[in-house]
Amino acid sequence: MLESLSEQLSSEWERQIMLFLVAALLLMGIALGTAAHLPVPVTLLAAAVIAGWLLVFFLRERRHRSEVTSR
């Protein structure tokens, strides 16, 4: 009985991991496909905007975490 439950949970876990991997590969393919059809300057500009946005997010989170730990 316990082994059957363990096998079902394992099977469900593997199914969820596989679904996640398929979704991640699909999204990566869409992103790379879009970048492949854009001119290089537009792709580089989009990459710079995304990098800037991530940098701002990182700095805000870092400042917020330092304020929370100093209290």
The gist of it:
With 71 residues, the chain is mainly alpha-helical.
Give an overview of the whole structure.
- The protein has 71 residues and is mostly helical.
- It has two domains: 1-37; 38-71.
- Helix content is 94%, strand content 0%.
- The chain has helices spanning 2-37, 40-70.
- The mean pLDDT is 82.
Instruction: Return the average pLDDT rounded to an integer.
Output: 82
Distance between the termini: 51 Å
Structural class: mainly alpha
Which assembly state applies to the chains in this document? single chain
Q: How much strand content do the residues show?
A: under 5%
Shape: flat
Residue share in helix: over 70%
The number of helical segments is: 2
SSE string, helix = H, strand = E? HH
Query: How much is the radius of gyration in Å?
Result: 21 Å
Query: What characterizes the major β-sheet?
Result: none
Query: How many β-strand stretches?
Result: 0
Low-pLDDT runs: none
Write the layout of secondary structure elements.
Layout: H1 2-37, H2 40-70
Task: Provide tags for this entry.
94% helix, 71 residues, flat, mainly alpha
